[in-house]
Amino acid sequence: MSIGTRIKQLRTKKGISQEYIAEVLMVSQSKYSRFESGISALDWNVIPNLTKLLEVSYEDLFDFKDRKDLVLADPILNTSIQNLVEGQKVLSDLEKAYRELLIKKERAYQAVIKEKDDNIEKLLQIIQQS
After folding, report:
1. Long-range contacts of 114-120 (CB under 8 A, 24+ apart)
2. CA–CA separation, 107 vs 12, rounded Å?
3. Structural domains of the chain sorted by starting position, each given as residue range(s) with its CATH number in brackets
């Protein structure tokens, strides 16, 4: 299966139009269509955005299960793809750490709000007792 066919398969599975992907990738719809048809190649610099749009990893995008021989036959392509895969793993780890940090921040914020509410309640009780 060609990469264009694979991307078309993933795109249609997600219910995304060619026009939408072309717009997000900032290429013409006709250029994107030619890529899916195998007539022309898509620039490598759009691949990261394409994986985000299709919500797939680089391994899934390139369908390594069926294309290992092709990737391994070209050491430059193999190295480039491995670098993309490693970069995606690092980004995933960073995103996870960021989400955890946001959760901790929200919990700390909620604790401060609760403490303030408790203090206000205590002050109101003191005022009522006076």
Report:
1. none
2. 40
3. 3-73 (1.10.260.40)
Cα 59 to Cα 69: distance, rounded to the nearest angstrom: 14
For 34, counting Cβ atoms within 10 Å of its Cβ (0-12 exposed, 13-18 middle, 19+ buried), the class is middle
pLDDT 10s digits, 54-95: 998 877 887 766 555 455 455 666 677 777 777 777 777 888
Residue 15 host element (H or E): none
∠ Cα 117 119 124 (to 5°): 95
Taking only the tens place, the pLDDT of each residue in 94-130 is 888 888 999 999 999 999 999 999 999 999 999 999 7
